[in-house]
Design goal:
The protein is about 30% helix and about 20% strand. By secondary structure, the chain is of the alpha/beta class. Helix 5 packs across helix 10. It is elongated.
Length: about 375
């Protein structure tokens, strides 16, 4: 039920009940993983998606049944890659889902809405079997769960994981529980307030980043130019970055230097490299990159730290406009975050939706490893 979005929140606050379908297991391949949720209103309106279209029609029926009966409904959808075409599906894959009704009167639902509105982390336990199937419990107050299940739910909250929690062999659980976690949006700190920065702010916000824009010029860092920014700061970028602590920046954070002035670029890059940010990048021509590298070395920044900088920033997409450049920059950030190759998918093999699940933005760049054997792709 996490991540349903503002429309679902509006409906719930308006007094509507929703039927929510949540992926609770992925025994095969699937476009979305455990925790993916969609909601259905009593009128049959659909909010969100759990599979990209393959099983949504059946999921709507299941959600409406949960609303009509007031009880949870469990189902498994999917076929093998061989059987799928005969059923009209483009590919195989399986998902286990649970449909259940929710309403604002549920105190856990109210907590979810408050945390998501404020972009705060939250972890829930969704009971998926037994008479309490469909009931959610907060990780910090797991009412009714066996002690070992509650402890495992707390561990999932610390790791911000979506996974089945178990009580272990020593204390068999009488219920099945799936931990559903939502982390705050990853941050993108953009130094510079030019047109490339405005374009990057737009596309990164759409991709789920909380964007901070910082520039020395107050006429550039305005709500009109950056309406989607989570934060607009008038300051020297290196001064702002120096104030960021471990509670502000983590491995999911990306810092992009777009100031185009070495008097600002170089100290900002040095400050960014001193932070635990997972990605540091900078726009610029190759001559500019060489100049920055020289100046950073003269300031005593270690060569291995400078090698972490993604500059010139962006994947080679061939575009030149600010929007096209922003897409290329965001593509490199996403690829680095998930350990992607940056290659066209038709030039790769293996599952399209793999289980890497690692934040790798902090690792030095390297040539992608070739894959010679892998399972068949999924859709």
């Amino acid at each position: 039920m996490l991540g349903l979005g503002s429309e679902a929140h509006r409906r719930l606050r308006g007094g509507e009940r929703l039927g929510v379908v949540t992926v609770i297991g992925v025994p095969g391949s699937a476009p979305r993983g455990v925790g993916a949720s969609m909601a259905v209103t009593a009128q049959g309106e659909v909010i969100g998606s759990i599979s990209g279209g393959c099983v949504e029609a059946d999921a709507v029926v299941l959600a409406r049944l949960a609303l009509a009966t007031g009880s949870a409904q469990r189902a498994t959808y999917g076929l093998t890659d061989v059987d799928a075409p005969a059923a009209g599906l483009a590919c195989g894959g399986r998902i286990d889902v649970l449909a259940y009704p929710i309403a604002l009167e549920d105190p856990v639902v109210a907590v979810v809405l408050a945390h998501e509105d404020e972009d705060r982390a939250i972890t829930l336990g969704l009971i998926t079997s037994g008479p309490d199937a469909g009931r959610t419990v907060a990780a910090h107050d797991p009412v009714g769960l066996p002690a070992e299940l509650a402890a495992d739910l707390s561990r999932a909250a610390l790791l911000r994981e979506n996974r089945t929690v178990t009580a272990g062999d020593s204390a068999p659980a009488t219920v099945d529980v799936v931990a559903l976690s939502r982390a705050p949006r990853p941050r993108l700190i953009i130094a510079g307030g030019g047109e490339h920065a405005a374009a990057l702010c737009r596309v990164a916000t759409a991709a789920g980043f909380a964007v901070t824009v910082v520039d020395t010029w107050d006429v550039l860092v305005t709500a009109e130019r950056f309406p989607d920014a989570a934060e607009r700061v008038v300051a020297a970028p290196h001064d702002y970055l120096a104030l960021q602590g471990p509670d502000d920046v983590d491995l999911r954070t990306a810092v992009c230097i777009l100031t185009h002035d070495e008097r600002l670029d170089v100290p900002a890059l040095a400050a960014a490299l001193a932070l635990p940010a997972g990605f540091v990048g900078a726009l610029g021509a190759r001559r500019t990159v060489a100049r920055r590298t020289q100046l950073l070395a003269e300031q005593g920044v270690p060569a291995d730290a400078v090698a972490r900088i993604h500059m010139p920033l962006g994947l080679d997409l061939g575009g030149h406009s600010p929007d096209e450049t922003a897409i290329a920059a965001l593509a490199e950030i996403v690829a680095a975050r998930h350990g992607g190759t940056g290659l066209p998918l038709r030039e790769t093999s293996g599952p399209l939706h793999d289980a890497r699940g690692r934040t790798r933005m902090h690792e030095p760049r390297s040539e992608p490893a070739s894959t010679t054997e892998a399972p068949a792709p999924s859709c």
